[in-house]
Specification:
Largest sheet: 10 strands, mixed
CATH topology of the largest domain: TIM Barrel
Structural class: alpha/beta
Strand content: 15-25%
Shape: globular
Number of helices: 15
CATH architecture of the largest domain: Alpha-Beta Barrel
Mean pLDDT: 94
Helix content: 25-40%
Number of domains: 2
Low-confidence stretches: 471-475
Strand order of the largest sheet: 12-11-10-9-8-7-13-14-15-16
Distance between the termini: 54 Å
Radius of gyration: 24 Å
Length: about 475
């Protein structure tokens, strides 16, 4: 007699109803009373159909069949086969190129992954030039257009160091990329990340006229910003950047301007930071990321800090929910990005596009996994002159597949996490192949919050979710 058990899933409640997130397929289903009862029963222990009927009644039959069809329930004697280890076929099209036009910065942020104690590359005395040349930038554009394959749109993100220290090359690169793309029937989307210290009217005018997306690295109100984001003489940067940002926001309206916040052990008031950056500064959206650093640094976030951060994120996520139900904009980008992945049924073999659809280019033209590894020989995947080293890329993809991360196999949140950021793993554990076990509870907690928000929206304002049905990719987000 067939006994039935629950397959891997995560049950949650939203809008007063039960839902289930099916881990292997990353599908989300609302459950009626019968389905919820059956799933709860077979989650507790195996049941035959007859045992289920005896407890739950005749409604079990069709319900059990439907749960089996969507693979929420399966036979005890036929456990799920392991997920196949599928490696993307080469050449995989490059969708986003992050161009590190300089590895120098006019700020001296203590927590900086590029210049602080945890840095991977020596940007002061290393072999890479401090500024990318115009020639290398042109070669990078040609490389990107070639490697983008059949994609009509390519994305270029300018990065640093402080990106605007090399504004002349950035400006010429945009003109060259537009010309070359037009010649072959493609388009290029441009964006950059900056600390805002070098913004001035002519630069702002150029960014607005050329519809360049802008992300500002800023940590919040003056006392928060000035704690770590300081100049080399120790002077805080808030009073310098605040008027420049407001001028940018007033002039540059062709694209939404976002803020990117680094959270540290001493700055965890997420809602206050969000309100300041949106209501007082005028940013359209704000994204938060915990600092990437060794655990023994003073600004590192400890376990209790991750719990506090989750609580703050949860509160802001529910503010987002109420605004979205009412049809108002809310700029908490962390929740919006995760909702989009949930809606699209994303199930990742890799945590991000690094080394695949996203590559970083160092100032000398070396190609790396992403911008955070630009200039590192150990994470090099070719050059813009010679192209991608396909053997090195395939080795990377083989080694970093989630199938190799044993700790992740029992985690229900793995479809969205896939072990977490390679750079975080390198900084914490010394190896990019390691899963980021120090924030597993945080990831599971945050994913649960996002699922609940998704369920609420599906019941209270399903039209909100239709925005994620657009086919045009937005490109990899860079932080």
């Amino acid at each position: 007699m067939t006994a039935w058990i629950a397959r891997e899933h995560h049950r949650f409640e939203a809008a007063g109803k039960p839902f289930v997130y099916l881990v292997p397929s990353a599908a989300i289903f609302a459950l009626d009373d019968a389905a919820d009862a059956v799933l709860r029963a077979v989650s507790a222990k195996p049941h035959t159909r007859e045992e289920l009927i005896a407890v739950l009644g005749d409604r079990v039959g069709p319900t059990l069949e439907e749960l089996v069809r969507v693979r929420a329930v399966g036979e005890l004697s036929a456990p799920d086969a392991p997920q196949p280890k599928v490696i993307p076929l080469a050449p995989f099209p490059l969708t986003t190129m992050v161009l590190n036009v300089t590895n120098q910065c006019n700020l001296s942020c203590e927590y900086c992954y590029e210049y602080g104690e945890d840095k991977i590359v020596d940007t002061e005395n290393g072999k890479q030039p401090k500024f990318m040349s115009e020639e290398t930038a042109r070669q990078s554009v040609d490389f990107m257009l070639k490697e983008s394959g059949s994609h009509r749109m390519a994305h270029v993100t300018f990065f640093g160091g402080e990106t605007l220290l090399n504004f002349p090359v950035l400006k010429k690169t945009i003109a060259y990329a537009r010309q070359r793309a037009a010649e072959i029937g493609k388009e290029v989307d441009f964006s950059l990340t900056t600390n805002a210290t070098l913004l001035k009217p002519e630069i702002i005018e150029f960014l607005a006229a050329n519809q360049v997306g802008v992300t500002i690295s800023i940590d919040g109100p003056k006392e928060v910003q000035d704690k770590f984001r300081v100049f080399h003489n120790g002077t805080g940067s808030y009073d310098i950047v605040a008027p420049k940002i407001k001028e940018l926001l007033q002039r540059h309206r062709s694209r939404p301007i976002g803020a990117r916040v680094t959270l540290t052990s001493g700055s965890m008031d997420v809602k206050r930071i969000y309100r300041h950056l949106t209501e007082e500064m005028g940013f359209w959206e704000v994204g938060f990321a915990p600092v990437t650093t060794s655990p023994n640094r003073g600004h590192a976030i400890a376990d209790a800090g991750y719990d506090e951060m989750l609580g703050q994120f949860r509160d802001l996520a529910y503010d987002f929910l109420e605004a979205s139900v009412a049809g108002r904009h809310h700029g908490f980008s962390n929740i919006k990005e995760t909702l989009e992945e949930l809606h699209k049924g994303v199930s990742k073999a890799y945590p991000c596009g690094a080394g695949l659809g996203l590559l970083g280019v160092a100032t000398d033209g070396d190609v790396a996994l992403c911008h955070r590894f630009a200039g590192s020989d150990a994470h090099r995947l070719g050059t813009v002159h010679d192209g991608i080293d396909r053997e090195a890329q395939r080795t990377f993809l083989e080694q970093h597949h989630i199938a190799n991360k044993t700790d992740c196999h029992v985690c229900w949140a793995r479809p969205l996490c896939s072990g977490g950021c390679y750079h975080e793993a390198h900084t914490r554990y010394g190896e990019t192949t390691r899963p980021n076990l120090h924030y597993c509870n945080w990831i599971r907690g945050w994913t649960d919050v996002c699922l609940r928000i998704y369920g609420e929206l599906s019941e209270r304002n399903p039209a909100f979710l239709t925005q994620f049905d657009r086919d045009e990719a937005e490109g990899e987000r860079v932080s």
